[in-house]
Automatic annotation (TrEMBL):
It holds the Pfam family Flavin_Reduct. Coiled coil: none annotated. InterPro entries: Flavin_Rdtase-like_dom (IPR002563), NADH-dep_flavin_reductase (IPR050268), Split_barrel_FMN-bd (IPR012349). GO terms for molecular function: flavin reductase (NADH) activity. Residues 18-165 form the Flavin reductase like domain. It comes from the Bacteria. The keyword Oxidoreductase applies. Belongs to the non-flavoprotein flavin reductase family. The gene is C1-hpah. Keywords: Oxidoreductase. It comes from Paraburkholderia haematera. Its EC number is 1.5.1.36. This is p-hydroxyphenylacetate 3-hydroxylase, reductase component.
């Protein structure tokens, strides 16, 4: 089997090129064994399969949340609406209790579902793949839901280092 050729670009060029791809923004939530709620912002979410229903996302191996996500049986992928930019930033930057004052409900598996999310996917932590400096998590979706006014709500999108809302063309 032939191996990949070495890259002909540096890391900043790679990041700039990746930044041109617009992605939705999610907050992945779970509960530690201690009961503490954990959540992180992620734009690395994607669908994998309809049958069985599978989704994926990735997390940096150096993330402080990695041990909890790696060990837990379940997590929730919360797809953010454009109006939830503050939540996105909170779960990306706040140190300490990121859930303080954040409205949420407990899903069927006890994991937090954020109020106002455009959509949510309650997942069994099916498999994990270490690749480079990240771990790819594949979740088997046990339950999902969509905001009752989803057709009227703009999603939160990240592209070229900036956040955007989308309007139909």
């Amino acid at each position: 089997m032939k191996h990949a050729n070495p890259p002909n670009f540096d890391q900043s060029a790679f990041k700039q090129a990746l930044g041109q791809f617009a992605t939705g923004v999610t907050v992945i939530t779970t509960r530690a064994a201690s009961g503490q709620l954990i959540g992180i912002t992620a734009s690395s979410f994607n669908s994998v399969s309809l049958n069985p229903p599978l989704v994926l996302w990735s997390l940096a191996t150096r993330s402080a949340s990695m041990p909890v996500f790696r060990a837990n049986s379940h997590y929730v992928v919360n797809v953010l609406a454009a109006s939830q930019l503050d939540l996105c930033k909170r779960f990306a930057t706040v140190k300490g209790d990121r859930f303080e004052g954040v409205s949420h409900a407990e899903g069927d598996t006890g994991m937090p579902v954020l109020d106002g999310a455009l959509a949510w996917f309650e997942c069994h932590n099916r498999s994990r793949y270490e690749e480079g400096d990240h771990v790819i998590f594949v979740g088997e979706v046990e339950r999902c839901g969509v905001h009752e006014n989803a057709a009227e709500i703009a999603p939160l999108v990240f592209q070229n280092g900036q956040f955007h809302g989308l309007k139909p063309l």
